[in-house]
Design brief:
Distance between the termini: 73 Å
Largest sheet: 5 strands, mixed
Pfam families: RE_AlwI
CATH architecture of one domain: 3-Layer(aba) Sandwich
Helix content: 40-55%
Structural class: alpha+beta
InterPro entries: Restrct_endonuc_II_AlwI
Organism: Malacoplasma penetrans (strain HF-2)
Protein name: Restriction endonuclease
CATH topology of one domain: Restriction Endonuclease
Number of strands: 12
Shape: globular
Length: 512
């Protein structure tokens, strides 16, 4: 055991291996079955192998679902053998597990300590069970967070989220936000004083990342490399800030970060309570976790009463404004859907996590194609500009398209894995098709449609027929869906698909 270093003032950061905080829900769901298991070498090998098989961790040139358990474990050992020890976990595959637990531990979602029982907090379980969504979960935990903790040996001893929201509220009162460069500077604040930071802005004249890095080297004596300071750390902190719903980002020649202005009073109320950790709790993982749990449970009662987000009824208005602001056409959105990870055309969209981008882009193309005839209602949570924050809660349809005559439920996913697509994406869909007065449609959209998924939906057609309900259902690849929407005959095609399958099923029964 090495000698513990004295704490130093450091840049605010989270684990950069997981850029998209929306991934944490799937990670929690994947490790849920190991709750109560002692995190020793033997069990960690089983857990990490499971993460590979679930697709949470990727390994090039290896299909873990086609391997035996022994083969899979041997590959896990081999591909992780050069990893250093980290977070109290030994080198190799155990430290790989810690990579996925670090931020979750810092934010009080889990208790993950080597050779101790693995625990998921009540907040983590509520998120897994769809009792709360990602935005509520992260907003709740952010109100409690403290920079100095058993996981961060730093001298910065305050809640960064409280600090930055206070600054953004003060700037909003002056009709301003902060630039990306000014945001990077905020990550170096030592004492959580908004006054000190705002005073420093008067002398901070950096207009680009290079001059920002130069300023930080001169004034904060940093030795960390440029990419880490100016790209990696700020990017991951900004993404976690977005998922809380506290901020909104706009692009006016450069990135501007603002408070989510439609929710200012709600945000103020969330931070009314001071959650303090004593010195022992800041250095003891068990005590820190237990105190976080206590705070989180009482805070959740307040967080649930103060919902952050845009009302569903406003989404069509927001979609129209976004289409106008960024001069979006059917062709541009189609290009975005063809290459979801490429944000060069609309730089501000880079901060939208990929799973929500699919919901967002499909909502846009629906608004462009059908906005004159239908009300387009995406159920993701969005900021004050209408940019998505987190995915639709598990108890709601992804996108609803409605008018007086038609109810159309659209479910979308980027999942390609056959097992995940069938189990994660189909279980809750049918319950969304409650009795409707309108003609009812269900469309499932994914990069590829596996036969098992197609069979599931075809079985549902039979179930609805038995219940004497007529629901039109069809699964489509993203390309098929976009083409049919562009041609404006998606509903007719869904009807044809449904009727064709039911006729074939009826003919097959008559031949028996």
């Amino acid at each position: 055991m090495g000698i513990k270093r004295n704490p130093e003032f450091k840049q605010m950061s989270f684990e950069t291996a997981i850029r998209n905080p929306e991934r944490y829900k799937e990670i929690l769901k994947s490790v849920k079955i190991f709750e109560g298991v002692v995190l020793n070498q033997e069990n960690l090998l089983i857990i990490v192998t499971h993460l590979y098989k679930c697709g949470i961790v990727k390994a090039k040139n290896h299909d873990f679902n086609s391997l035996s358990d022994k083969e899979a474990k041997n590959i896990v050992i081999e591909v992780n053998k050069t990893r250093n020890s980290d977070g109290g976990f030994p080198k190799g595959y155990p430290s790989r597990f810690w990579t996925y637990m670090r931020t979750l531990s810092e934010l009080g979602f889990v208790y993950a300590v080597f050779n101790e029982k693995f625990e998921l907090s009540p907040i983590a379980n509520a998120l897994i069970n769809n009792e709360i969504d990602e935005q509520t979960a992260f907003a709740n935990q952010a109100t409690i967070y403290n920079r100095r903790s058993p996981y961060r040996n730093v001298s910065n001893d305050y809640n960064y989220f409280k600090f930055i929201t206070k600054i953004l509220i003060e700037r909003w009162a002056e009709g301003k936000g902060i630039t990306y460069e000014q945001f990077i500077l905020s990550l170096f604040n030592k004492d959580g004083s908004s006054e000190n930071y705002l005073n420093e802005l008067n002398s901070f004249k950096a207009k680009d990342l290079e001059s920002t890095y130069k300023y930080l080297k001169e004034n904060y004596q940093i030795t960390t490399k440029y990419g880490t300071v100016c790209t990696d750390y700020p990017d991951v902190v900004l993404r976690i800030l977005r998922i809380t719903g506290f901020i909104t980002i706009k692009f006016v020649g450069k990135v501007i970060i603002q408070i989510n202005e439609e929710n200012i009073e709600k945000i103020k109320k969330l931070f009314e309570y001071d959650h303090k950790f004593n010195e022992e709790e800041k250095s003891n993982k068990r005590l820190y976790y237990e105190k976080y749990k206590i705070y989180a449970s009482s805070q959740l009662l307040r967080t649930r009463q103060i919902e952050i987000g845009v009302s569903n009824r406003d989404y069509s208005i927001k979609l129209k404004k976004l289409i106008s602001t960024y001069s979006l056409t059917k062709e541009i959105v189609t290009d975005l859907l063809d290459d979801i990870g490429n944000d060069k055309k609309i730089p501000i969209f880079k901060y939208i996590p990929e799973p929500i981008k699919l919901e967002f882009y499909i909502s846009l193309i629906l608004q462009i194609s059908f906005g004159d005839k239908f009300n387009i209602i995406p159920n993701y949570k969005a900021d004050s500009f209408g940019l998505p924050i987190s995915q639709a809660p598990g108890n709601k349809a992804d996108i609803e398209v409605v008018n007086d005559d038609i109810y159309w439920n659209i479910e979308v996913t980027l999942i390609k894995n056959k097992f995940q697509q069938l189990n994660n994406e189909t279980s809750n869909i049918i319950r969304h098709l409650e009795e409707k007065n309108q003609e009812t449609y269900l469309t499932f959209v994914a990069p590829i449609i596996h036969q098992d998924t197609q069979t599931f939906f075809e079985n549902q057609l039979i179930n609805f027929l038995i219940k004497k309900r007529k629901v039109y259902i069809a699964p489509y690849t993203i390309k098929e869906f976009v083409y049919l929407v562009s041609c404006k005959n998606i509903l007719e095609n869904t009807k044809e698909y449904t009727n064709d399958y039911l006729n074939r099923a009826r003919d097959a029964l008559l031949k028996q």
